[in-house]
Amino acid sequence: MNDMTPPKDERAVALKGLGASRKRVEDVRFTQGKGNYVDDLKLPGMLFGDFVRSPYAHARIKSINSEKAKALPGVVAVLTAADLAPLNLHWMPTLAGDVQMVLADGKVLFQGQEVAFVVASDRYVAADAVELVEVEYEELPVVVDPFKAQAPDAPVLREDLAGKTSGAHGPRRHHNHIFTWEQGDRDATEKVLSSADVVAEEMIYYHRTHPCPLETCGCVASMDKVNGKLTVHGTFQAPHAVRTVASLISGIAEHNIRIISPDIGGGFGNKVGVYPGYICSIVASIVTGKPVKWIEDRMENLMATAFARDYWMKGRISATKDGRITGLSCHVTADHGAFDACADPTKFPAGFFNICTGSYDIPVAHLAVDGVYTNKAPGGVAYRCSFRVTEAAYFIERMIEVLAIKLGMDAAELRTKNFIRKEQFPYQSALGWEYDSGDYHTAWDKALKAVDYTGLRREQAERIADFKAGKTRQLLGIGLTHFTEIVGAGPVKNCDILGLGMFDSCEIRIHPTGSAIARLGTISQGQGHATTFAQILATEIGLPADDITVEEGDTDTAPYGLGTYGSRSTPVAGAATAMAGRKIRAKAQMIAAYLLEVHDDDVEWDIDRFVVKGAPERFKTMKEIAFAAYNQAIPGLEPGLEAVSYYDPPNMTYPFGAYICVMEIDVDTGEHKIRQFYALDDCGTRINPMIIEGQVHGGATEGYAIAMGQEIAYDEIGNVKTGTLMDFFLPTSWETPHYTTDFTVTPSPHHPIGAKGVGESPNVGSVPAFSNAVHDAFRAFGLTQSHMPHDHWRIWKVAHDLGMHG
Ligand code: PCD
Hints:
alpha+beta; globular
């Protein structure tokens, strides 16, 4: 090394690589109102589409009269199922192997269902015309309860499936039954449960809710009839998959379709599925020859696009008298609404719910999930969780608490006693997963110590005594959770969506002057990929992150990938990025050796350069190497410095965490106050600690909303009672608790940089922590289980039913 060379640590810091809390490069435009969202797009001659939607949850359509609407000046077309039928587009395939009406075909099955699509010169004319379309309905009996839906005499919801005794996931045993999915060993589990010392049994309900991104769903479809190219800008979390599906459905050759996801204002799973609005906009653009924009309003988003959860989970868990868990059984009744449009990898009709043995070493388990049709909106998306993992984590973390009550044991101690031990990894779970790595005891002990758990329990005991003595009306709840997530779908061999294997990709081009562009198959919706993926590369290829542009979301330029959801970007595309970087570095090594006139093996990597072994003063920086790649004829090497990697992960990654919520509850008003919320996350190698902290704050806030008030509620005739933000709880900074974040680092053994996902973890972990805090506050007064969301009224009701109001 010569005197001019800055020391290693200084060079490493200058790269802003792995581990740096690099400021988000996206925020320069976001904080100045310069983002580029779908609704910012204005194309010449653009038309606007808007839906006529059903006011009924179940009704036959007797007639649709659009004459008055068509007569309104500015209205260009009104599409109904009859117009789409000749193109065979009045129904579309769902991600779950079912079919779904694009526009109501003979009947409607949920409130807010799309009935007709009005296309007009501007949005206001379209909205006025929607009011003028006359639809005659004949009401039919409504089923909103998935248990009643399975009664022998329940109304037939899906007449199109009449007589079909099997569906995409096997046999159907009733006209409203979709599938049964079973995992684990039923007989062995029953045997253990029937002879166990202690068995706790409970029905745990995870209510229906909605991702509710600030930006609703929308698109602009533009068919260029001259060159035959269809361009669709849209809020898509998986742009390439949308392109392939659009080609298969429409018959337009795939190279003639360009899908662009511009900036996206939050996805949270809401923007994974395909909605009628996309199909109708594309058809309308083909029919009119003009670009057609469709943007949902807030009510449409809440009422009609993909819901989340709605799982009734009946659990039984057994243990020895001293609290060693011996078996677990779970039966889920899954309310999928009118069509099975659940967004899961094809072979997993209940997603990865079979992670429901959680962080515990449970020797035998059995799971059965029954999917059921009801008169509710379709969906079943992974709202900030990897395909039903939040339901699974909620289930097991509630069951642990219920078991602790039955055993008369401290719930923290029960967890400690049953955690999978560090030396058991890779761990084979009873329901079929291989957990890659973990160190649960270390994380748990750190968390308990951080909140002074023993002190809190002492305080709680005093509070209970004070309450009983009439000195206070405030209870103290300590909500514990230790969760294990499963993120990073693939592997291709068992994960696909509509037949597309779930790999991901990165393509890098290094420019002659030593800056670069990387393109990925994923798409950020706010996560900060442009910041973090450049950091992975900076460390791999020794060029500063600030000199690397990261681009996603345009199918004409990005390599094929399966998109961003299920916290898969870091585990899959992040791995592809590291691997592509390593290909660059391998070629750079040959170039450096040539320039330094030594053998390839005689140079070694040193942060941002190759150095001749034993002669540190002789080196070539990556910047020099990049230039040489374009201006030297190097024998045996092609010019240029580019690489692409398509990465099929060997396994998923299993991030985990320990969350503790301390909550004050007013017995008389049902109000709560979060006194402390501690979140310890282990996502393996941390790329950007600041972004991770932001992810935890965001996810925990969504979890807070879900646990404490947010829901999509229906009345008995299928009216959505929470269709506006007046009724649907979306916390503002006023309600949002303060969080303390912490971490441990247990790298993934199979990921090239050891990273696991983190974006969803805080939702998976926080919901049970908040809910357990509510339950824990009332444990001493006899509460075992009460359903979320724990809004003021429900908490008040719990106290009331326990006789605490005198
Ligand atoms: N990271 C770091 N480190 C680690 C991991 C991670 O740093 N270790 C970071 C990365 O890079 C990014 C983030 O963090 O940036 C995240 O990541 P992940 O976990 O991998 O994930 P992704 O794939 O990217 O994403 C996804 C997620 C999800 S799934 C969701 S819901 C949500 C989350 O993400 N969403 C959202 N977050 C968020 N944020 C925002 N802002 N926005 C949004 O929208 Mo789903 O399934 O879809 O339901």
